[in-house]
Amino acid sequence: MPELKWYVVRVQSNKEETVKENIEKRVKMAGMEDRITRVLVPCEQVSEIRSGHRRIFERKSYPGYVMVEIEMAEDTWFLVRETPGVGDFVGAGNNPIPMSQHEVDRMLGQAQQSEEAAPKLLINFDESDTVRITTGAFENFEGVVEEVDREKGRVKVAVTIFGRNTLVELEYWQVEKF
């Protein structure tokens, strides 16, 4: 039984999926499926609303990196290293460093969670940012974000009404960064 460990490989940015597929093809052609077992591009699903339309997309957790479960030997290292788009293994020189078990657990948990869970909300502003309200009773008012509830997708904005600061709770898609 080979000793399989997870390693991190640097790849060209925005080419992670292509490199993953290329590695998998090369492994199959070389007959090394038992020595290079899995190749992952950890992603999470994110939801955002732009121009009134909800959009769900996958965002890479580690852009520019691919994780490979491999029995490290000269031939397996060479096969992955010589795949088009692969930079090198993470480590010192020609000595790749395997991922620690807690990093592997976190990465695999994230990959499984993204397949099962509802998409996360992409909220492009934080507390103390100046925003403009785009819809509702306070449309075109400007205010300062006091609180962001990323779980519920709610934002509390301090708006000046008749010379007084008033806290207004809105959906995240009802405001935009100013």
Spell out the key features of this protein.
single chain; about 180 residues; alpha+beta; Alpha-Beta Plaits; SH3 type barrels; 2 domains; four-stranded antiparallel sheet; 3 helices; elongated
Tell me briefly what this model is:
This protein has 178 residues and is an alpha+beta fold.
Structure notes:
- The protein is α+β, with helices and mostly antiparallel strands.
- It has two domains: 5-121, Alpha-Beta Plaits; 130-177, SH3 type barrels (Roll), CATH 2.30.30.
- It is built from three helices and 14 strands.
- The strands form four sheets. A five-stranded antiparallel beta sheet has the order 13-12-11-10-14, with no helix packed on it. The protein has a four-stranded antiparallel beta sheet with strand order 2-5-1-6, with helices on one face. A three-stranded mixed beta sheet has the order 4-3-9.
- It is elongated and about 75 Å long.
- The mean pLDDT is 86.
Which SSEs are present, and which pair or pack?
Layout lengths: L4 E7 L4 H15 L5 E5 L2 E8 L2 E8 L4 E6 L3 H8 L4 E4 L1 E2 L2 E2 L4 H16 L3 E2 L8 E4 L8 E8 L4 E8 L2 E8 L3 E3 L1
Parallel strand pairs: 3-9
Antiparallel strand pairs: 1-5, 1-6, 2-5, 3-4, 7-8, 10-11, 10-14, 11-12, 12-13
